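Progress against Task 2.4 (sequence-to-structure conversion) is shown through the following example record, which the project officer requested during the mid-term review.
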Amino acid sequence: MADEVQNVEGAPEAAPTEGQAPRRGRGGGRDGGRGGRDGGRGRRDDRRPRDEDGGEELIEKLVHINRVSKTVKGGKRFGFAALVVVGDGKGRAGFGHGKAREVPEAISKATAAAKKAMIRVPLRDGRTLHHDGLGHFGAGKVTVRSAPAGTGIIAGGPMRAVFESLGVADVVTKSNGTSNPYNMIRATFEALGEQTSPKSVAQRRGKKVSDLIKRGGASDRAAEAEAAAVTE
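Structure tokens generated for the chain above:
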């Protein structure tokens, strides 16, 4: 009996006969590993480093990150949702939203979406808005106002990230209604999308920039000087 046991346990495994499939290891994988196509225990990491668009330096602001879950048959699958604002600090900005199983991948997706949705906002002297504006989205209502030099960015939360990435140095804002960062960001960009410059208005109406400034009560010399200072 001992000889039989020795033969069964110690003998090498017989070669498979014709028509018989070869035996696999404990992992059940084709390479006899412990699972996974790459032989590892976890899933593959396909994250790639973020690249810049043509070498342009952009300001990236992570506004909000939220953990989300999806209920499936085996339980719950957790992921992350990121809201990112991107700008060049010179009057261009955009926002994007991305979801992924890992935080860095969600931020990368949101950043890529924000770069594709960037808009151009005209700025006065490169530091503030040309005029006041209102934005509304869902339950969020925001008010943006131009401010003199030295005022700073009077805004909180998501709106501050928008103006910092946009390159605005002086602005006064007010948010009413919801504090949902998604609605606040969309309402802010709606208000910024309605911004116009004296140069574009004069071109559309077939007038000079100085003619528009004179109607505000300025003298001819002051109007000419201010019109010469308008760059966009």
